[in-house]
Description:
The structure holds 2 protein chains of 2 kinds. By secondary structure, chain A is an all-alpha fold. Chain A has helices at residues 3-32, 34-55, 62-92, 103-142, 150-176, 180-202, 213-235. Helices cover 82% and strands 0% of the residues of chain A. The radius of gyration of chain A is 20 Å and the shape is globular. Chain B has helices spanning 2-12, 17-31, 36-53. In chain B, 28% of the residues are buried. The A-B interface holds A 74-75, 77-79, 81-86, 88-89, 94-95, 115, 118-119, 192, 196, 199-200, 203, 205-208, 217, 220-221, 224-225, 228 and B 6, 9-15, 18-19, 22, 25-26, 29-30, 36-37, 40-41, 44-45, 47-49, 51-54, 56.
Amino acid sequence: MTPWILAGTTFLASIVEFVEAATIVLAVGVTQGWRAATGGAIVATAALIVLIAALGPLLSRAATVERIEIVVGPFLVLFGIAWLRKAVWRFSGRKALRDEAALYERQIAELSSNREAHRGFAVAFQGVFVEGLEVAVIVVTFAASTPALIAWSAGGAIVALAVVAVAAFALRAPFARVPENLIKAIVGLMLLSLGTYWTGEGLGITWWLGDSTLFALIACYIAISAALITVSKRARPA
Amino acid sequence: MRVLREIYDFITGGSIAAPVGLACAVIAAVALHAWRAEVFSAIVVLTFIASTLEKPN
């Protein structure tokens, strides 16, 4: 494999992972604050650097990723359910929107939003950590046949990171104009779908459609959420 | 006790159905040899539905 083809392949493979991580960080930033989002992303990056420096040679074993998935996946499922059900409650009117809260409720919401900010940090951390680890595995695995080209392989991933970072920064403002509850629903949907997929993969499940199963899970959760909103709205007395 | 409650609420959003359902899904996936993907995803989907039907906290 020529150096340019290797770098291009790593670029394409890792840009997908970076887009997933950036979407999570962007969504957390808009809903839970940029401090939680960037904090989680920075700490995850630092943890990744330490991990790669210490365990670099072991990363070429795919089992490492599966072990990480089985630890992180269930947390994403639980976080995803917590966010998505809250969005469903708000869409259906079972729970008041934030700005409708009374003064006392606002204080309670403040405490709750502190907890949510911590959860936002954890979500940003997990998203960046798992996707970053996958990129590290891609970089090491692609260069496995020609170890002298590891710098080209890493270079492709670094360029992908730069492209996604610039795109995410540019999209920050338009993203912030989307209604908060809708973003929370999208984040919850992503976390729940990714969590289901990763936990299953970590348990050794072979998904029906491979990576595309993720889209099937997203579609399934959208349909169920829409049905739950409709049912909850009908069940509410007029 | 309060700290444990805070940790529990932090992870689960106060839901009882979510951790119980997820544990059932994982146990089923480990125990089964066939239909693992179907049973696991079905239990997680049911867990989400049950959790959403809980009383808002």
